[in-house]
């Protein structure tokens, strides 16, 4: 079916993608899971960088096709980076070696909090991303020890904030068609699934426009 949205999930080989794939398929898209970073951005309508794993091994998987994927994102490929996937949009991480995609300038650092990791529900504040607004997602599920710290120049790309144990950090970022969420929308109940659907509709609208 040529009208069906094609979505590629880039698999770093680090965990179970079942809930994410099911959420995307529930939105009416056809999902392809790809381990090659170059093939992940070829012949697809949208890319998802999933939220399972650690930064260093994921960056190692990304390395052979980093520039190709970065170019595709900057050229307008609709992309959703979830948790670790959002962190890979940044330059690098204190969690381990390796380079991220660098489409958002900044570094990933450990939560400055007594209770780490953060596991559970947390509020989203100062939401500006229209997809978040449309989905009604203002409380989301987190499972993270590290968070993204954009440079002052790229701080305006933050499209929602959360706070954990006194540490305020970006809940989401947005640069053009690139969206990152530190939380897991696929685990954030009905509003989270609605947000995934909003992203798919956004990607479909871009395909129709082109």
Automatic annotation (TrEMBL):
IGPS catalyzes the conversion of PRFAR and glutamine to IGP, AICAR and glutamate. The HisH subunit catalyzes the hydrolysis of glutamine to glutamate and ammonia as part of the synthesis of IGP and AICAR. The resulting ammonia molecule is channeled to the active site of HisF. Residues 9-193 form the Glutamine amidotransferase domain. This is Imidazole glycerol phosphate synthase subunit HisH. Keywords: Amino-acid biosynthesis, Cytoplasm, Glutamine amidotransferase, Histidine biosynthesis, Hydrolase, Lyase. The gene is hisH. Its EC number is 4.3.2.10, 3.5.1.2. Pathway: Amino-acid biosynthesis; L-histidine biosynthesis; L-histidine from 5-phospho-alpha-D-ribose 1-diphosphate: step 5/9. The active site is at residues 83, 184, 186. It comes from Gemmatimonas groenlandica. GO terms for biological process: L-histidine biosynthetic process. PROSITE patterns: GATASE_TYPE_1 (PS51273). GO terms for molecular function: glutaminase activity; imidazoleglycerol-phosphate synthase activity; lyase activity. The keyword Zinc does not apply. InterPro entries: Class_I_gatase-like, GATASE, Imidazole-glycPsynth_HisH.
């Amino acid at each position: 079916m040529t009208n069906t949205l094609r979505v590629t999930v880039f698999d770093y080989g680090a965990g179970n993608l079942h809930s994410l794939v099911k959420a995307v398929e529930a939105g009416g898209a056809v999902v392809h899971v790809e381990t090659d970073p170059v093939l992940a951005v070829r012949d697809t309508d949208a890319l998802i960088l999933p939220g399972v794993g650690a930064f260093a091994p994921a960056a190692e998987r990304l390395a052979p096709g980093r520039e190709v994927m970065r170019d595709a994102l900057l050229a307008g490929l609709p992309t959703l980076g979830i948790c670790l996937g959002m962190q890979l949009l940044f330059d690098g991480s204190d969690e381990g070696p390796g380079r991220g995609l660098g489409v958002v300038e900044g570094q990933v650092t450990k939560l400055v909090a007594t209770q780490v990791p953060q596991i559970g529900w947390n509020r989203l504040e100062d939401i500006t991303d229209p997809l978040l607004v449309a989905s009604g997602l203002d409380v989301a599920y987190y499972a993270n020890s590290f968070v993204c710290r954009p440079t002052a120049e790229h701080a305006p790309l933050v499209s929602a904030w959360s706070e954990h144990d006194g540490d305020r950090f970006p809940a989401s970022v947005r640069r053009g068609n690139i969206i990152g969420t530190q939380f897991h929308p696929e685990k954030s109940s009905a509003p989270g699934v609605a947000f995934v659907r909003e992203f798919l509709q956004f990607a479909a609208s871009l395909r129709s426009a082109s």
